[in-house]
Design brief:
The protein is 38% helix and 22% strand. With 324 residues, the chain is α/β, with parallel strands linked by helices. The strands form three sheets. Strands 1, 2, 3, 4, 5, 7, 11, 13, 14 and 16 form a ten-stranded mixed β-sheet that branches. A four-stranded mixed β-sheet has the order 10-9-8-12. The protein has a two-stranded antiparallel sheet with strand order 6-15. Helix 1 links the parallel strand 1 and strand 2. The C terminus is likely disordered.
Length: 324
């Protein structure tokens, strides 16, 4: 049986980018693909652009979903609830600042889950990490370690690099884009809405998967996403980022009795070259892009600093590289 693919795209005021995002998804689609653009409190021309794309692509199954400025978690759940989760397939969930460049993503996802086995659960195409052993005692908003990031990501500091066609197990897979099999959603439910409006929904779902006997991880594919493309709700970001710590505390409480069981699952840090999907000769582009993304991240993080501040930043970053 050919699996279905549900593409869920959360959109908030992205009139400058959403056409590129959706057209890239359309290029990935096959006859059993479904696209769910979730327009979340849009006040710009995003909906108008989505309507135009639907009209221009009558052979593609695109179902528009409108929600009232509910943010990430409820937007994703609205699409999960409005799509078919009862037959075999995969949910590819991405934000409105991600352009999928790999038009073979469906074929690769099917092969990945086949090769990794039936217990593969939540997969990120961007970033993943393991849990710090003191997660219950910690007050950190993100008590993670052993980060690994796709070379097409943002060049996250102290992360190992993953190239297209490579896979690495991690306890927590971090969006976006991510993949969750439909039958997992059908059996284990939707994102925990107690974490609404956003942050750590992927963490909670990954812990749910681990307790159910699944493994999570990161798989490298090519995509394009710039740091400055994000942050569409800048006026409320300070308020939203408070939810990182609050939601992590919620997770600590929810999984307090099971956390020792979760932590007892051995961490697996090895990188797997997935047979048939990894080609070392083709990764020159990814290596080059990773260097570019690291430079862009540094530029983005230091753009408001003085000259002296930028020098201090560079020295601090160099010291971290030496000791890590």
């Amino acid at each position: 049986m050919t699996p279905i693919f549900n593409y869920i795209i959360t959109i908030h005021n992205k009139e400058d980018l959403i056409e590129r995002v959706m057209n890239a998804v359309i290029k990935c689609c096959n006859e059993k693909s479904f696209i769910y653009p979730v327009l979340d409190g849009c006040t710009d021309k995003s909906e108008e652009i989505v309507d135009k794309i639907i009209k221009e692509n009558p052979s593609v199954a695109i179902t528009k979903i409108i929600v009232n400025d509910v943010h990430e978690i409820l937007s994703i759940n609205a699409a999960l609830k409005g799509s078919n989760q009862s037959i075999e397939g995969y949910n590819i969930i991405l934000q409105d600042d991600v352009i999928l460049s790999d038009q073979q993503i469906e074929k690769k996802v099917v092969q990945l889950y086949k090769k990794m086995g039936p217990q593969l659960g939540y997969v990120s195409f961007r970033l993943g990490a393991n849990l710090k052993p003191d997660i219950l005692q910690s007050t950190e908003g993100a008590p993670f370690k052993d980060y690994i990031e796709n070379a097409f990501g943002h060049g996250t500091p102290k992360s190992k690099v993953l190239f297209p066609g490579q896979f690495a197990f991690r306890k927590v897979a971090i969006k976006s884009p991510v993949c969750i099999p439909t039958l997992i959603v059908n059996k284990y439910g939707f994102l925990d809405e107690n974490l609404s409006p956003c942050f750590h929904d992927d963490t909670e779902y990954c812990l749910r998967m681990l307790l159910a006997g699944y493994k999570n991880g990161v798989f490298g594919i090519e995509f394009h996403s710039e740091l400055e493309w994000g942050g569409t709700r800048k006026t409320s970001n300070d308020r939203l980022y408070q939810h990182i710590v609050k939601n992590m505390d919620y997770i600590r409480t929810k999984y307090q009795k099971q956390m020792n069981t979760i932590l007892s699952i051995p961490d697996d840090e090895k990188v797997i070259n997935v047979e048939g999907l990894f080609d070392p000769k083709s990764n020159k582009k990814a290596q080059n892009q990773y260097r570019i993304n690291k430079r862009k991240r540094i530029k983005f993080e230091t753009q408001q600093l003085t000259v002296i501040g930028k020098i201090k930043y560079q020295i601090k970053s160099l010291f971290k590289e030496i000791i890590s």
